[in-house]
């Protein structure tokens, strides 16, 4: 075996040498003089003479090396090795790289192991290591001959990745025949994969929808402009106090901004397509759409899984995957009011469980094997018809839940059934290779609609709100490579837990409406997106910089005396540039508790206090960002802004927040009036927007912030308790019905007995009395539970109304 290997090593090395000469344009008989020169250049001239003198073919040099002739010391071997490598790779010896044969393919892929003098052990050992494997573990020739077909939709980066995929597939196969998530690539491989496939860990894409018929009929302005596929500007119409109209511009930069003319196909190409090959690299990918109701989330998300299946199936047909029994499975469920329902199984209620390996299993979730797009289309349609939808002002068929469609690539050893429960039993259902989850989030502002909606919608909204914030936190933590991912923040993030650990990719598509009436929401969406992106190390620098474009509005002195309410998010804008990253770095242990939400305790526990900042002569005390969102309705000078921004950094770095629901846009105007600031609903599904008049800034005390925070926590806690009690109440009701039925049966029996001739009436009376007491007790118990629940609802209502101005 050893001899065989040595032979093949020698052959490989000879081939390499041959190749290098060939590439150098040198005929093989250019002779020893050339070789001598090369050897000389490496200080190995003494090796040249024997071969020259014996007339040995220079192509045998590697053989000499392998057999222990020629270079004797390790240093010589290394030099020789380097020389060979240079011959092969540097410009001097030819522009083309060596084309390996099937047998040496893996070796080339592992260039570090084969050519580098830095490989483990000495030269010979390194070569032996490389080939010390069963030939059967190598890719078969036909696999290599059949490269990945470049998708017509693939971006150049992804194409580059695909062309490289064979190498990695080869590596994978050699390294492990069983693609189990528990087996990991060597670190270098991982890094290379990330680098090479050029797929960012988090990608934030914005999509603007066109004005719809209603908006056009109302002659609404399109206030969103897109530039260079990367910039989006919101032209916010505003009024000065003297009622002069002006426009405030907010510019953002994202990984991609897609305008209203972009098709769903192009959206796919920009977002999901580059990720698809990574699914076979044990990546857990998540693609979600975020945005206000009616902004196009469902419109955007629905075609994506179809396109993804098309590409996944195409890849699955490659022999390398087919031979490994890779298969694609689909499941579709929704999270509604903190509960999970299977959309492909008559909305069966699902339970979430963690197994011993802390893998999240959704007990009872039906998975279906899919092998073509048509069947996926049918599943999606079936699932969609089962989704919880309702009507909102902006969208007649609005999604009221988070819908999650998962495509999972599994490796099967033996699959007999085409449909089975995902009971977490890997051996039965195959091992997960990778997966992609498509999430159509519930409209983001519904969490905000607290005043105009009924109680049910408010609770629903609070849950949505919570999950959106939790999702954002997880994404941030993910991108910051934090050890702790706060996935327990909501059901949504718990479900996506395995997408937050290990090799993950996230694409967020922020959908925005272009009409002026949606300005506030559009800005909120973009800010949410920006915060996801800007806090990541790889994020674009933040750009939301309002510019007063109305004539005269640039005159800062003319506006500086006006009540100032600086949009908190604008502060964050600057914060990023003006030190936020620094602050973050310095307080790395803070995690990312910068939002207006209650974070898991692990997030807040490390929170440091940065002291206070002076801003334009006004000292801002330690400010709860929830309460102090300073919205610059009238514009402000740059210097003022700078101060406030700085201030906001402190404010938000200090306090952990609880996010109260946001209210609807039209009320914002009222709240921007000075005096309303104390009452203003400052939460939001994603942002807080509260007015903070300058003159009041100083008086805004820590205790105020504290008590408000307490209030917020109370609300959040209350909502959680309500959800739990709701469940208990429903369960108790069911139980009561069962008991009642049992009692009714007993009563019927009693009646039947009493009708019998010679029955004892005393017995009947005693038993009836006993049965009725049980019946009454059961009812009273249910009534008591109901009363408690009603009380809880009232409490919640009072609390939320306290915070939301009417
Ligand atoms: N890019 C677009 N081009 C054309 N029409 C669009 C586009 N985006 C959305 N629409 C249309 O706008 C309407 C609302 O879109 P959609 O239902 O996707 O919104 P949504 O964000 O999912 O709303 P909700 O959160 O309430 O479910 C639909 O009629 C849809 O066809």
UniProtKB/TrEMBL annotation:
Database matches in Pfam families: Kinesin
Alphabetized InterPro entries for the sequence: Kinesin-like_fam, Kinesin_motor_CS, Kinesin_motor_dom, Kinesin_motor_dom_sf, P-loop_NTPase
Biased composition (Polar residues): 546-560, 589-608, 633-649, 686-706
Membrane-crossing segments per the record: none
Region: Disordered, residue numbers: 534-561, 584-711
Kinesin motor domain ranges (all copies): 201-535
Residue spans of biased composition, Basic and acidic residues class: 666-683
Compartments (UniProt record): Cytoplasm, Cytoskeleton
Residues noted as binding ATP in the record, renumbered to the chain: 291-298
Alphabetical UniProt keywords: ATP-binding, Coiled coil, Cytoplasm, Cytoskeleton, Microtubule, Motor protein, Nucleotide-binding
Domain of life: Eukaryota
Gene3D superfamilies from the UniProt entry: Kinesin motor domain (3.40.850.10)
Coiled coil region boundaries: 723-754
Major site of localization recorded for this protein: cytoplasm
Family from the record: Belongs to the TRAFAC class myosin-kinesin ATPase superfamily. Kinesin family.
Record-given protein name: Kinesin-like protein
Gene for this chain: LOC115732540
